[in-house]
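Continuing the batch. This is chain 6 of the set; chains 1 through 5 are on the previous pages. Same settings as before, nothing changed between runs. Recording input and output for traceability.
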Amino acid sequence: MSQDDFFHPVSGFELPRFAGVPTFMRLPHVPPGHARFSEVEIGLTGVPWDSGTTNRPGPRHGPRQLRDASTMIRAQHPVSGLRPFEAARCADLGDVGPNPADIPDSLERITAFYKELRAAGIRPLTAGGDHLSSLPILRALAAEAPLGMVHFDSHTDLYKGYFGGTKYTHGTPFRRAVEEGLLDPKRVVMIGIRGTAYDMEDRDFARAEGIRVIPIEEFFARGIPDVMAEAREIAGSGPTYVSYDIDFVDPAFAPGTGTPEVGGPNAFEALSVCRELAGLQIVGADMVEVSPPFDASGGTAFLGVSIMFELLCAMLSENRNL
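Output for chain 6:
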């Protein structure tokens, strides 16, 4: 491989996709400390951690399965024609090493890792991990100013606490992020919210803070182009984070997750919403809550990495024509 080709993925024409050591999208492994780390522009990173899970565990195994499934990702977007690995230097940065026995310590470790990325000018595309993983990433990326956010999920993750006041679970990250000044609530939109609820405390908080919640009924009634036009308007032209929980997708198409909710989008719609992000100033994105123990066929993981490819392309789309 020549120096010019270093950041290009290995082609399936050169090495069968079932061969070799898996990395995200067959990109080079360039962890911090690597001689070419400073050249990376978009870093794909795993956060194998699910200590915030409150029911069915398993997303700690997500990054490994997502890497394996991602060997099927090719070089060119089928609709826009964008070739992201030629548009930017992308690499697999490896995994953040969590402490599965200590939530505060893991939060600090993850934040420290992403601060290193931010200092190097690397935009992260993350594979979780449960949704609490987003909080320490935001602590690193929003250290100087709050971000906007487009959030695809069946849950708001805005609860005050669990089990008598536990503050850090996968149902609380964005409540903490607003409280800590990491998100500008008036530039946050949550899309696809549905399912039975404990109460309306999370929705009340969203309403009080100015967070726009688009429930699944409205999503289907209005259609993707209209909903996503509003999402882009809310996020505006400022720095924006995109957080994508795989349980946004109906479990008929993505059963491998810990907290599925029926009545969601299909696989094509799951990809389509990402294509409508083009033009936003995306400073980072994540795909969370893929749980291999509930993904017997591997289809959830393949959908997850297909969404990651769409997010990568959105991060590189400078205008609405891509």
